[in-house]
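Support request, please re-run this one:
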Amino acid sequence: MQRVIDSVREAEQFIRTKAGITADTEPEFGIILGTGLGGLVGEIEIEAEIPYEIIPHFPVSTVESHKGRLLLGRLSGRRVVAMQGRFHYYEGYSARDVVFPVRVMKFLGIRRLFVSNAAGSLSETIGKGDLMVLRDHINLLPESPFRGAHEPEFGPRFPDPLGTYDLTMVARALEIAGEKGIRCFAGVYVSVAGPQLETASEYQYLHRIGGDAVGMSTVPEALAAKQMNIPVFAISVITDNGYPPSVVEATSLEDVIRVASQAEPRMTAILCALVAEAE
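Re-run finished. Output below.
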């Protein structure tokens, strides 16, 4: 069986050749765009666009709202590689499959990873349409991206998740939001398998164990980045209310996409400012 590192290297070399990446034009930052949050693409000066299906070993997005394109170009004057569409455990992929693109981004040269997602609120304070930057997470997914044979090229066998999210960027994002009059909070994200949403009782449980928002993504990618010593900034657009029980309403994917799309320009404003300033 081929080692993951060999597959990562093959995908990396394909992307370098297809996009004409040299040592002087490597992307500085990786970006993963979540459900309903593709509007940031409009801010990127795209220099190369590669469909996932032609990249060796790359997973293919099966969610209708995820375009399935790797974009290389400039955002706020900085070189970026952006995933317009991500992968989820609930699609049938293993945790290792989900983080494969993050591995590839690392070997393309990124120094920071920016991740967005749509999430449900577990807090009375944080409501539909608000933003939440992740200061920590609770991982309830049934599988780790580190399960299986260890490949030392990716980092330690037993990575410590302490400090997965860059708290300096968290603080700066809150400052930027304040300057722009955007409602934004820092909180704890709970990652669950999905794809079903939560019951009212499950929302209460997740609130009681310390969660401020719940979603079906982000944590595997953040853990893989931490293993590879890449600082992570992650932000959630809150698309529905799960707490207190009296505010829980039936929610559809269409509802999630609509609310996410409405809030997306505010998220984009914060991400563009952070990318412009990042070291």
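The chain has one domain: 4-277. The first strand starts at residue 29 and ends at 33.
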